[in-house]
Design brief:
Elements (H helix, E strand, L loop, with lengths): L4 E6 L6 H8 L5 E5 L18 H6 L2 E2 L12 H17 L3 E6 L2 H9 L9 H11 L4 H11 L9 H14 L3 H7 L7 E8 L2 H18 L1 H10 L14 H8 L8 H23 L4 E5 L4 H16 L1
Helix pairs in contact: 1-13, 3-4, 6-7, 9-12, 10-11
Length: 308
């Protein structure tokens, strides 16, 4: 396999990316690099839908469980870590496949990110003390005011980042992304999985119910007992926020799966928009209602055709 391309499997949450990656292992010596901004956090396996221990024994997975929920992990750091993992996998004859739904991570890996200007540490810490007291809605509102290109509805960490860059550099984050980008780590060949909305919603609903059944609330309670801060970057994901609401009495446990599913459906819609408009044009789009084995065979055939 002398091809310099890296296979990148993307799609909205719940579409079935993991199943396809496992099916690809029947054709190639696959090792998966997770491109999921939530799966880097330790102790939140159910909440972030990580591959199960059985799946990881079948196919090695990388860039899971890297940092505690209170630590920030950036797209730039992901690109560097993923690039290194890809090189190591290739060096031992493996076939790296990047799998995930975090568009910014994929973009950082395949297109590069901006070179961050130096930020004054005392001012940064003072600003963090202020933004740490804001709720999510307030953070997003301020981020949108300071950067008109900020995609509303994104998570707390991204909103805080947009505020920080605008106030500490005098230019919005979107300006830095357009005008000061660094080089890409890999040449990506992208496969985007899609599914009709009704099918995707059905899968999301089923997954939310399964998360609750497997012990989501207990997992989040254990993370908090272990010292994870409520405002930590890893505690801002869908599923974790709602579980915290249950633990603090703001949400009935009986409503948890429904609430998570509703939030996930909205997030999946934003993911699909991102992938359609901001991820490279090279690659393949496949209907994920087909069995994973069929999708894997289609990917292998298209890859081999592109190698000629």
């Amino acid at each position: 396999m002398g091809d310099d391309r890296t296979l990148i499997l993307i799609g909205p949450t719940g579409v079935g990316k993991t199943a396809v990656a496992l099916a690809l292992a029947e054709h190639w010596p696959v090792e998966v690099i997770s491109a999921d901004s939530r799966q880097v956090y330790r102790g939140l396996d159910i909440a972030t839908a990580k591959a199960t221990p059985r799946e990881r024994r079948r196919v090695p997975h990388h860039l899971l469980d890297l940092v505690p929920p209170g630590e920030r992990y950036s797209a730039g750091r992901f690109a560097a870590d993923a690039g290194e993992a890809i090189a190591q996998i290739r060096s031992r004859g493996g076939f790296p496949v990047v799998v995930g739904g975090t568009g910014l991570y994929v973009r950082a890996l395949t297109e590069g990110l901006f070179a961050e200007p130096p930020l004054d540490r005392p001012r940064r810490e003072a600003l963090a003390a202020v933004t740490g007291l804001m709720d999510n809605a307030t953070l997003v509102r301020w981020a949108s005011r300071l950067d008109p290109a900020f995609p509303g509805g994104t998570g707390r960490q991204r909103a805080t980042r947009a505020i920080e860059m605008a106030l500490l550099t005098g230019r919005p984050l979107s300006w830095w992304q357009r005008n000061a980008s660094t080089g890409a780590q890999v040449r990506g060949w992208i496969v985007r999985l899609t599914a009709p909305r009704a099918v995707l919603h059905q899968r999301i609903n089923a997954r939310a119910a399964e998360m609750v059944r497997r012990g989501l609330v207990e997992e989040v309670a254990a993370a908090l007992a272990d010292g994870a801060p409520l405002t930590g970057p890893g505690m801002d994901g869908i599923g974790v926020r709602e579980a915290v609401d249950v633990l603090q009495g703001r949400l009935d446990r009986e409503e948890l799966a429904t609430t998570i599913a509703a939030a996930t459906r909205k997030y999946a819609k934003r993911q699909e928009t991102w992938f359609r408009h901001q991820v490279g044009r090279e690659g393949l789009v496949l209907d994920a209602t087909r069995p994973p084995e069929h999708l894997a065979a289609a990917i292998v055939a298209a890859w081999n055709e592109g190698s000629k």
